[in-house]
Amino acid sequence: MADEGFAPHELLANFKRRMKIYHKSEDQELSRSLTASQARIKQITGSEDSNDPLIAELIMERSRYAYNDQLEFFEQNFLSDLLAASLQHYEPSDGGDDDGGTTPVPV
């Protein structure tokens, strides 16, 4: 059942091409998965810029793991890429009321 207000995720076409999904019946669920993956990647790396090739790759790979019911293995298998993206998007703290940026991000 199609939702009239449904807006596909910007990576949906690329994700479907990669996964060899040629029908539209799962578009809403795939977009939800991509949106959830984008939120989690932002939480880990600090970036949700899907125009950044590394971030886009991580969003699609996390969605692939979710699609195949293997999500529990994603962070372990992509740890080096997640750390690289985190370092690439790291912004030092300005010394405000927070903890100085010393709180680790759960991976």
* Biggest pleated-sheet summary: none
Helix content: 40-55%
The unreliable regions are none
Q: Given the C-alpha coordinates, what overall shape results?
A: globular
How many helices?
5
Order of helices and strands: HHHHH
Radius of gyration: 16 Å
Estimated share of beta-strand residues? under 5%
Q: Work out the number of β strands.
A: 0
Structural class: mainly alpha
Task: Measure the end-to-end span.
Answer: 36 Å
Provide mean pLDDT, rounded.
88
Oligomer: single chain
Give a short summary of the structure:
With 107 residues, the chain is mostly helical. The protein has helices spanning 12-19, 27-45, 53-67, 74-77, 79-88.
If you had to describe this structure to a student in words, what would you say it looks like?
This protein is mainly alpha-helical. Helices cover 52% and strands 0% of the residues.
Q: Topology of this protein?
A:
Blueprint: H1 12-19, H2 27-45, H3 53-67, H4 74-77, H5 79-88
Helix pairs in contact: 2-3
